[in-house]
Amino acid sequence: MTGSEAPAGTGRLEGRIALITGASRGIGAAVARRFAAEGAHVIAVARTIGGLEELDDAIKSTGGSPATLVPLDLTDFDAIDRMGHALYERFGRLDVLVGNAGLLGTLSPVGHIEPKVFERVVAVNLTANWRLIRSLDPLLRQSPSGRAIFVTSGITRRTAPYWGAYAATKAALETLVRIYAAEAAHTALKVNLINPGPTRTRMRADAFPGENPETLPPPDAIAAAFVPLAEPGCSHHGAWIAADEWLTSEE
User: Fold this and answer.
1) With contact defined as beta carbons under 8 Å apart, do 190 and 226 qualify?
2) Environment class of 48 (CB within 10 Å of its CB; exposed 0-12, middle 13-18, buried 19+)
3) Are 202 and 115 within 8 A, CB to CB?
4) Residue ranges of the domains in the chain?
5) Which residues carry out catalysis?
6) Domain 17-250: CATH superfamily, name plus number
7) Each residue of 161-199: pLDDT tens digit?
8) What is the pTM assigned to this prediction?
């Protein structure tokens, strides 16, 4: 499957309204295509207008309903609030939030990271997800089966020199999401973390320039792992899920 194709689905997300950040390429675009194929109405959020339009074309080419495209820089935090208000006015609820957008920053000793780089990584990987929760939690609770899924990394499970900014922000995101899950424990909302694992993306190529990308699964192979977490029947809550293990258990 190429990056411009949408997979065949089985209607597991029929009628669901799903917002996905970082949806113009990589894992975000693959998840958007998969969700649309499963019957969801996709709200695709990304900075790149061209990438969003390509995604919409791919969804429509396979019979999916046109996506709602939201060109937005997630570090424009006030714009996130405006988006939340607009979604309430249009839909009245949100069934699925996928916090996927992420930034690698630079791989260097902690003391060598430039402040503006560190601050940008914190803004995208951590603060933007908090602002999404703050703005969209009321909409998720309007759904009879709201689902929030946040993309993390296996880097939080080990100490990796030179990964300070990325690893620290992903670890902080995990703590934030677990607390959010605990606060939603007695509601219909389910909140989980997913680690896609090594995937053939631009970020992976930047982090490992000497790696052969053909040895890695493409984003479309990982996207299927997001579907069970977005379904109304999902029972997982506060979980940290490795995509490869999840896909194996689903087979």
Assistant:
1) no
2) middle
3) no
4) 17-250
5) 166
6) NAD(P)-binding Rossmann-like Domain (3.40.50.720)
7) 999 999 999 999 999 999 999 999 999 999 999 999 888
8) 0.93
